[in-house]
UniProtKB/TrEMBL annotation:
It comes from Nonomuraea maritima. SUPFAM superfamilies: Composite domain of metallo-dependent hydrolases (SSF51338), Metallo-dependent hydrolases (SSF51556). CDD domains: Met_dep_hydrolase_C. Residues 243-379 form the Amidohydrolase-related domain. This is Imidazolonepropionase. InterPro entries: Amidohydro-rel, Metal-dep_hydrolase_composite, Metal_Hydrolase, Metallo-dep_Hydrolase. The lineage of its organism: Bacteria, Bacillati, Actinomycetota, Actinomycetes, Streptosporangiales.
Length: 403
């Protein structure tokens, strides 16, 4: 799709704002961003005068499509809570693009989401990055797998403790993870030896995924809230040498200096919830600012549907109110989550070569009264708000020429 968005206050995020700027999109990719951009003939033009133009927001940790809204048990595919080690499981195989949450995401300027299995298992499965508009998950696919989800703390020990089986304690959860990685190390050695000798080898889907983590191909997204569990996450990553990403990090501010020194990113949130369990005792909107000031690379998450996906930007706004720098707030929902999850070659900012995922806002998106007026995914208009009515383009009824 070709498109020129002109006349708006362009905020590339990874660069200085441009008043009266133009974003040129050709074949679905951004080709130019600037003030004096020559728009080729016959290129459709959208006038953004009076509005703010930003990249689509990136949700780094959500459950859109696997925990469907208003569907009850029928739409609940977040956790396969029958095996503590679910590394072979893929969120990709459970996403329903018809989930109402995808329309909500667009209304909140969110164009990309990393969908993760839940936190019921010590090892939950593989995550996937998708665009928030499309007929099938395969059309929406941005990258798969993106990482492997793992959980420490209350959730897995409760799930399996209720079943009267391992793991029912924090030490049991850590043991399950440690045992899995040791098996993966042994598996890799046997597999490599068999390959070198030209011998057949029985593959194991679970261990193949964990070997990719050990080899540094896939980061380890560690669900963890309490500071002691964060310390366990650090300890395990030291033992096995994988790339660690802290997810939730409710008490990450208590170890902010350690996380910064070790370049461990934190995907923090959800921030609008009650303190519904012991792990959330120190949940606070001031924590993102503490982490950012310490030098921690920070992304903010809704953990949708825990917090509705279209409130992602509002969490950033209220974090600003409690001390987070506004520039850091915008980065925490754009370029930072894209970089943390290895997607910054496609999304997260406005610059040539990236996908044409652009949102026109009525004003500063950190102002709670601003709203997304138009949303483009790869240069295609997929959402608009006019005359008090939000409209999501139906992906099942495209013009024949577009198919």
């Amino acid at each position: 799709m070709n498109l020129a968005i002109t006349g708006g206050y362009v905020v590339p995020v990874d660069g200085d704002p441009i008043d009266g700027g133009t974003v040129l999109i050709q074949d679905g990719k951004i080709t130019e961003v600037g003030r004096d951009v020559a728009v080729p003939e016959r290129t459709p033009v959208v006038d953004a005068a009076g509005g703010w133009v930003l990249p689509g927001f990136v949700e780094a940790h959500g459950h859109l499509g696997v925990h469907e809204e208003a569907e009850g048990w029928a739409g609940q595919d977040t956790n396969e809570m029958t095996d503590p080690n679910g590394a072979r499981l893929r969120a990709l195989d459970a996403i329903n693009p018809a989930d109402l949450a995808f329309g909500d995401a667009l209304s909140g300027g969110v164009t990309t989401a990393v969908i993760k299995p839940g936190s019921g298992n010590p090892i939950g499965g593989q995550t996937v990055a998708i665009k928030c508009w499309g007929r099938s998950v395969d059309e929406m696919l941005l990258k798969e797998p993106v990482s492997v989800k793992s959980a420490l703390g209350e959730n897995p020990k409760r799930v399996y403790g209720d079943q009267k089986k391992l793991p029912s304690t924090r030490q049991g959860v850590a043991a399950v993870i440690r045992d899995a990685f040791m098996k993966a190390q042994d598996y890799k050695a046997k597999r490599d030896a068999a390959e070198a000798e030209g011998k057949p080898f029985d593959r194991d889907g679970t261990l193949e995924v964990l070997v990719r983590v050990l080899d540094g191909e896939l980061p380890w997204c560690q669900h963890t809230h309490r500071a002691d569990d964060i310390a366990t996450a650090l300890r395990l990553s030291d033992e096995f040498g994988y790339r660690l990403v802290i997810n939730h990090g409710t008490e990450g501010h208590l170890l902010a200096d350690t996380l910064a020194e070790r370049n461990i990113p934190v995907i923090i949130g959800p921030l609008f919830t009650s303190r519904s369990k012991v792990e959330l005792r120190h949940r606070s909107l001031s924590n993102p600012g503490i982490l950012a000031r310490a030098g921690v690379e920070l992304a903010i998450t809704t953990d949708h549907p825990v917090v509705p996906i279209h409130f992602l930007v509002h969490q950033a706004t209220l974090a600003v109110k409690e001390g987070l720098d506004p520039a850091d707030a915008l980065r925490s929902i754009t370029v930072n989550p894209a970089r943390i999850m290895g997607l910054d070659d496609r999304v997260g900012s406005l610059k040539p070569g990236l996908d044409g995922d652009v949102v026109i806002w009525s004003g500063d998106p950190l102002d709670v009264m601003s709203r997304a007026l138009k949303v483009f995914v790869s240069g295609r208009e997929v959402y608009s708000y006019a005359d008090g009515e939000p409209v999501v383009a139906d992906p099942y009824y495209r013009e024949a020429a577009d198919r």
